[in-house]
Amino acid sequence: MMRPLRYAMVGGGRDAFIGGVHRQAMALDGRMQLVAGALSSDPDKARASGRDLHLPDDRNHGRWQDLLDDELRRPPDQRIDFVCIVTPNHVHYPVALAFAEAGIHVVCDKPLTHTSVEAQALVRASGAAGTVFGVTYNYTGYPMVRQAREMVRSGAIGEVRKVVVEYHQGWLATQVERGGNKQADWRTDPARSGLAGAIGDIGSHAENLVATVTGLEIEALCADLTAFVPGRRLDDDGNLLLRYRNGARGVLMTSQVAAGCENDLSLRVHGTLGSLAWRQEEPNLLLHAPIDGPRRVLTRGSPWLCDAARRATRLPAGHPEAFLEAFANVYLGVAEGIRAAQAGRAPLPGEADYPTVHDGARGVRFIEKTVESAASAAKWTDWD
Amino acid sequence: MMRPLRYAMVGGGRDAFIGGVHRQAMALDGRMQLVAGALSSDPDKARASGRDLHLPDDRNHGRWQDLLDDELRRPPDQRIDFVCIVTPNHVHYPVALAFAEAGIHVVCDKPLTHTSVEAQALVRASGAAGTVFGVTYNYTGYPMVRQAREMVRSGAIGEVRKVVVEYHQGWLATQVERGGNKQADWRTDPARSGLAGAIGDIGSHAENLVATVTGLEIEALCADLTAFVPGRRLDDDGNLLLRYRNGARGVLMTSQVAAGCENDLSLRVHGTLGSLAWRQEEPNLLLHAPIDGPRRVLTRGSPWLCDAARRATRLPAGHPEAFLEAFANVYLGVAEGIRAAQAGRAPLPGEADYPTVHDGARGVRFIEKTVESAASAAKWTDWD
Amino acid sequence: MMRPLRYAMVGGGRDAFIGGVHRQAMALDGRMQLVAGALSSDPDKARASGRDLHLPDDRNHGRWQDLLDDELRRPPDQRIDFVCIVTPNHVHYPVALAFAEAGIHVVCDKPLTHTSVEAQALVRASGAAGTVFGVTYNYTGYPMVRQAREMVRSGAIGEVRKVVVEYHQGWLATQVERGGNKQADWRTDPARSGLAGAIGDIGSHAENLVATVTGLEIEALCADLTAFVPGRRLDDDGNLLLRYRNGARGVLMTSQVAAGCENDLSLRVHGTLGSLAWRQEEPNLLLHAPIDGPRRVLTRGSPWLCDAARRATRLPAGHPEAFLEAFANVYLGVAEGIRAAQAGRAPLPGEADYPTVHDGARGVRFIEKTVESAASAAKWTDWD
Amino acid sequence: MMRPLRYAMVGGGRDAFIGGVHRQAMALDGRMQLVAGALSSDPDKARASGRDLHLPDDRNHGRWQDLLDDELRRPPDQRIDFVCIVTPNHVHYPVALAFAEAGIHVVCDKPLTHTSVEAQALVRASGAAGTVFGVTYNYTGYPMVRQAREMVRSGAIGEVRKVVVEYHQGWLATQVERGGNKQADWRTDPARSGLAGAIGDIGSHAENLVATVTGLEIEALCADLTAFVPGRRLDDDGNLLLRYRNGARGVLMTSQVAAGCENDLSLRVHGTLGSLAWRQEEPNLLLHAPIDGPRRVLTRGSPWLCDAARRATRLPAGHPEAFLEAFANVYLGVAEGIRAAQAGRAPLPGEADYPTVHDGARGVRFIEKTVESAASAAKWTDWD
């Protein structure tokens, strides 16, 4: 087993939620090691957070710029292998751009940036530097999502006619942003969250899930966005009709005010030869209804799954894996990409299975187009 | 127990599907008795079908007009109590109008008519005659649908914010209408099916289910209809965004080409205080997710259900009831309405729980507006 | 369609529960018609109940003996085709014996009799008369139970190694027999219920379900019976280990004090090549887990089911059928048997699919052996 | 955050399965660090395995005795905090005894030992040394198991009347031990596995799950054990009837030849006021059926769960946690126990929630008594 990759984290300090999830995901397989950080935009909190995580003082920074400067001063063989950016959305862009331009591999949370202009700048920067740039659309790391992708791509359900994707949560059903909920606070603030609320926060996962599994490209969309909770400035519920370039139709639903729902992301794909259904809250199952025989329940860990699903599996069938393992799988893909880049070679087939900066940029465009459609009088909005 | 109501059936002869279902539903509780019929538009087939059902010769007619004439000739105490119309869609209107104008109670299948003009004529005719006019939106007969209605109407989930209703079938995923499937043949023929395909056939059930459970009124809708199967002239897939007058948003999905799906009608209602979910293929359950406590699974037959749900139940909890029983419940409601009318009184509270000609007319308008929206350049179409 | 079969009912009057279920099941398909009855052991209640059901006075009897006498006096072409016995258990035997000896076809509820001696007398009587004798183990009428039977018998899951059958209810979890619950009252009274409580009432269904589906024969059993509710004289909970003649092992569990359970009868069969699972509360599904591929969910109404399952189906897939339809299927099988007998021929292959007096007698022996095992010091009790 | 605890591992080298699972579980929360090992009984493989895991050469041993000697030579502040024993069953005892007698905290896999005599020696040794001794009954680490425990113990379902626990797997349905399956090889060998096969390997988990959740004590048991696969010397299927000291009854089923089953451990507890059901393959749910209201589905991460369940949770509701997280929870409990011991204090309320050597010893007795019952002529075997 090779030495673990060294990473620095920007964001994810005390009181943050998702940074700890990223760290647990990276710890799971023992292949990545946190060595440096600038864990908060507040320098004091940043350093206190770094001490919590046993970071050495000289790599525990109050500002991300100091982290970058410090890393660049170190000899390459002691430098971090990549940076992991888990700040609120508005900070993604400057940090990611600076590290990418400095030739450091980047993993950034989603949605990637506030604007397509920014996203394209990141595409160019990482392209110019030849570096890996992963975006943590973590749900793509589930083995059964990869199985679905393989089945759709290989024609197991024929040509896709209809896609239904939904992502329903209920945690913003009341005005929790006024009650000190830090996650709710920045997500409902346009300055930090961006153009969109629920569509950006979770709708972007839904868009990515469809694109990852089916490869379909959106031709036009028609959106209805609503802010239900009084005083809320960004959408907390959104519904879209979609037309794909192959003629398929889609429905994308998202809500953060669906009271009683937890994290109900699901995907259904209907093709000429059958249908697939997957649900994040029961992630070890993939339902396959062929047109000409009984429904099948594919389970993670089974020997008859595709290579990509089996590679993304640690435990035997019936020993469930879940959210953290899926998250970790995205990181394992990134790690393979970095290993290959460090070895000066392209990834082998099946290696480096992770969402890239291109996925991130498409997600930003999705958010922009959705907001444009919802705001326009003529509802159907072309993608191009 | 009072004598069974006597009914005549128009349509529903040999090779028909739904007529037999209506007859089984009516037989279940022993409260209705088939005494006359004009069971097909083909007089020979009509009479042969009547003989199959042991109809006496003098009430076994080749044409529905003969049936009507014959009944009117009989003394009132020997006449049918109501007529049941289960023909293809295009025949509903003339038959229903003639019987209603003759002062005979009517039960008619859905969608009620091809046009709102016709539907309004039926509203007027039955109104003028003071007769009962039921429309067999059979899914409203499920006890747990009635429980959902009670819970929404009584505020158990607060103010409704979002409704998701879907009806996915797969039986038209291939060109079965070319292969001798009689059900597919007329449903895909504009002359017999009307303006719409799937939206008329099953989308109308979805519309009715929402209206029945929530009472919400559509303010505007935005529809995308598609005919996927080559050569098909009517939509076999449709998706709508909906805005309701109270500010709620909705998504209505329907398909008859969702390969591998059977009869997957489901409803979710999200309110400020919780959510409800019901699925026709598991009709004995109603899921209730309150905002402030664990999810609850309400089961048919439980003592804590509302009166309307308990009245619609024959068997104890755990002894499942299903499609036919729900269908029968609609007829029991119609029967109560007829009994009350015959007694010259209004139905008592809780009695006569069935979809009326007004539901039928609203359903026709829904179809028209959906087709209008799908065909228009400006997609959002106002209801009024 | 032939004329409906005429039947008389013994038991099933006002306040009874299961009689009405039998009548609804028989009404469903329009093939059986109630023409006579002795609907209660209380003559006045019997006649009042018959009037409720519109029985003519001359066939509405106060005593079952009068019913039998009256029928025998009628010319054969006006006589009932069969009698349906739905009394409490202790009355089954004398009524069934009398009618069978009189050469009248019989349908009797389960458990058949209080003792094997009585059961064997019924076997002999109906054998001597050459009459049909059906026992309403109604759960065998479910299409997916018949599909399971076909799959096990044809080797789809290989040789059976293990069977787990359970039947859990909760309605007797408290002392309801003291509170006026008529169903609870006689079921907990040894004089009317027989040797056993839950084991007789519902354990016998479980035994029959295993035998029907697998054909396995019990070699020995080891039982533990308990009366949990204070003051109860018959078991309200029972658990058995089973050994079958082919070497398979079994577990049979039953309870009527499993608080919160409704009517949770389920069967799992594990063979060398796969497993099957069926659950009465979701009766339209049969789960099949083959050893060498993904799990399959077989659904009622699918074209790939066996003949017996398809014959037992009225509605298309996705239009659920349930308890009453299954019950009706048993009666349809009986009717085919009677038609064949009346025509002086053996039933055709696939016809006359119903549990017979032999099933009933085996069920009585099961109850006796279970009680014997539970009472003995040496627990394993041989069947023979 | 305190420094991670240092641990050594015995067993768990190349080709082993469960050792890696233990390491991942311990890595998850960053609170334990592997620093030493004797990872195989084959010294060369042991050292190669240690190099895979980046163990320093001086703490990478070929024999567990060398590991122990080396640790004892080190100053206490550099010594391991605990040893983790993940060898095949027959090696547990000597290793655990040696480390416990040396005053080192121990975590050992289950079943603890081959005999009760050995198990009691471990109880005494760890008691004498005052050290922590955890046994990795990992399923007790699931939050919803802890919720079930709290609900049963606090009386939410009243007095327990019946327990049904089952653990069905299918991976030994064929003679895989002859085909090079290392896991199957030692588990089916009496010399390495012990007295029992499936009952020891997975039945012990089932026994522990009941004891953990309910606290019920077995009074007597009646077992039927079978080796279905030709040539197999240990049971691969077992079924037990149980009587508990409080009068409750139980059924325990286990199989490793239930073809098509994966890792189907489930528990149902029926009390006077309601029932609970939990299933390992859907571990984020706990079903609660109260006697007097609708069923409830409790979900991990909800604010209304008990403290113990919430402490065992990392992610919000709807972000599923699974097998590894549950495993990690057991280790977190052990870690709290060790921290407390190192601080010379008793654990605080709610701390140190893990199965101990007493659970392990009871599990060994369960195996012995089960085998005794299955082998005896008089089947019911008293626990004492």
UniProtKB/TrEMBL annotation, chains A, B, C, D:
It comes from the Bacteria. Pfam families: GFO_IDH_MocA, GFO_IDH_MocA_C3. Residues 5-136 form the Gfo/Idh/MocA-like oxidoreductase N-terminal domain. Residues 40-60 are annotated as: Disordered. Residues 145-276 form the GFO/IDH/MocA-like oxidoreductase domain. Residues 42-60 have a biased composition (Basic and acidic residues). InterPro entries: Gfo/Idh/MocA-like_OxRdtase_N, Gfo/Idh/MocA_oxidoreduct, GFO_IDH_MocA-like_dom, NAD(P)-bd_dom_sf. PANTHER family: CONSERVED EXPRESSED OXIDOREDUCTASE (EUROFUNG), OXIDOREDUCTASE. This is Gfo/Idh/MocA family oxidoreductase. It comes from Caldimonas mangrovi.
